[in-house]
Design a protein that fits this description.
This protein is an alpha/beta fold. It has nine helices and 14 strands. It has two domains: 3-221, 3-Layer(aba) Sandwich (Rossmann fold); 226-277, no CATH class. The chain has helices spanning 42-49, 72-75, 93-103, 108-121, 137-149, 167-180, 217-223, 240-246, 281-289; strands at residues 3-13, 16-27, 31-35, 57-62, 65-66, 78-81, 155-159, 185-190, 200-207, 210-215, 228-232, 251-256, 259-265, 275-276. GO terms for molecular function: ATP binding; ATP hydrolysis activity.
Length: 295
Amino acid sequence: MMDLSIQNLSMSYGKATIFSGLNAELHSGGLIGLLGPNGAGKTTLLKILTTLQKPTRGEVLVNGTSLLSHPKAMQKVLGYLPQQVPYFPNLTAMEYLNYVAGMKGMRPHQALEQSQSLLESLHLSDTANKRLKEFSGGMRQRVGIAATLLNDPQIIIADEPSTGLDPEERVTLRNLLAELANDHLVLLSTHIVSDIEAIAGQILVLQSGHFLYQGTPGELIKRSVGDVWEYPISADWTSPVIVKQLNQPTTSLIQRPDGIRIREISKRPPLPQAQSVTPNLEEAYLGLLKGVIQS
C-alpha cells in the first residue's frame, strides 16, 4: 500500500506563480487521473512528485517520509514516464530496456524476463531487435512505457502517456494501467478526458493554480446533471449563427439516427426545444473549467 500526501504545495518562477497551496491525499488501489488544460501546471507538479524539481513551499510525503529531505524514498519505488521519452536511437528495443534495467539495479536474468514480458504486453515482441531510430513515435512511446514498468515500481507516474499512440495502442495502455492500479499507486496526467474516463477511480482537476475538483468521476458527473442540453441542428447548419455556436468550447456535434444534434453545456436551456440529457465525464469536466458547474 502506497500513499502520497501533497501538503500546501506551491511553485513559482520569479513573479509567476504556477500553483499555490495544493493539498491532496493519493493512495494505491485505483487509477488517479490528473486533468487540466495545457499550461495548468500538471507537468511541473509531476516533476516535484518525481523529485526532479523542488517546490517553492510545501511538502510531499511518500508513506510518511518527506521527499524534500529524503528523495530516495520516492526514487526507489518510482516508475516515471515523462512527456518526452529519452532514448538512444542506435540501441534496439531490447538493448535499451536492458540498459534501463541496469540503471535500476536489476539482475540480468530478471531484466531479460521482464523486458520480454513487457514487450509482449505492449505488442512489440516482433521488433525487440530493431533499432529505436527506425521506430515510429508511437512505438518509441510504448518502449518508454515498458522501461517505466521495469522492476515493478510501486508508484507509477505518467505524463501524457497516450501521446503518439493510435486508438488500439491507447486501449492497450489504458487496460495495462488499469490492471496495475489495482495494487499500485498510478497517477496519469492528461488533458484528454477519454484517456481516463473508463479507468479512473479518482480525479484531480488543476486550473489557474489550484485544484478545482478532487473526487470520483461519478460525483463530478452528478454535479453536472441538469447542465447539459441536446437539440437538433438547423437544416442550414452552415449558417453563421450555427457556425458561431459550434465554435463555442461548451458545444459538440453528435450523430443520431434522426440526424445531427448539438449538445451544449449551460445553466439554462439554450433553445426552447433543448432537452436535458445525461452528461458524460468530458462534459462535466468542460463545465467545471468554464464555471458552469461549481467546484
